[in-house]
Design a protein that fits this description.
Layout lengths: L2 H6 L9 H14 L4 H18 L7 H15 L3 H33 L2 H16 L6 H13 L4 H9 L15
């Protein structure tokens, strides 16, 4: 079962395997105490953080820790639940990212207000910059997400401006 299917109850692909089902059940149990809309919000938030962390096809330990911290702080989860949610978000991005990225982001766009979308945008750059650099791929993915969230280009620029020192395109090229 994909994350989008879990969030919406709508099937988008064939029956999942047993390991995937168990992962979803485990996270559902962990988030079961949350109000359903808040659980969907947290799941989408985490998935999108994982989406940008995986943009360069490598989710570093620094990015993982940043995801866990932000999920705990912004999602109102205890640290152990945030670790589990981050782990699931990473797994789903690595396995199904290409097929679920837009669907999950569209669901977040529907659930979140403008302030929450702007907060997510800042968090996306925070995750990207957590390893010391925001790659061109990560920057492009954040831009795509901002567009899918129906945020203006100026919103994207404002969030990115807080992380300029980490943008690899602005760093000096190493001298030979």
């Amino acid at each position: 079962m994909g994350l989008f299917e879990w969030l919406t109850g709508r099937a988008v692909r064939p029956q999942p395997d047993d390991a995937d089902v168990e992962t979803v059940r485990r996270i559902a149990r962990e988030l079961g105490e949350l109000e359903p809309d808040h659980a969907r919000y947290v799941a989408c938030f985490a998935y999108i953080l994982g989406r940008v962390a995986h943009a360069d096809l490598d989710i570093s330990e620094d990015e993982t820790r940043a995801m866990e911290t932000l999920i705990s702080e912004r999602g109102g989860l205890p640290a152990d639940q945030a670790v589990l949610v981050a782990s699931m978000a990473k797994q789903h991005n690595e396995l199904f990212g290409g097929t679920e990225n837009f669907l999950v982001t569209r669901e977040f766009e529907r659930l979140a207000d403008r302030g929450q979308k702007l907060t997510l945008l800042d968090c996306l750059f925070a995750v990207s910059a957590s390893d010391g650099s925001v790659s061109g791929d990560e920057n492009a993915e954040v831009r795509k997400i901002a567009s899918e969230l129906k945020l203006d280009h100026r919103d994207f620029i404002a969030a990115r401006s807080r992380y300029l020192e980490h943008l690899t395109v602005l760093k000096d090229e190493p001298k030979p």
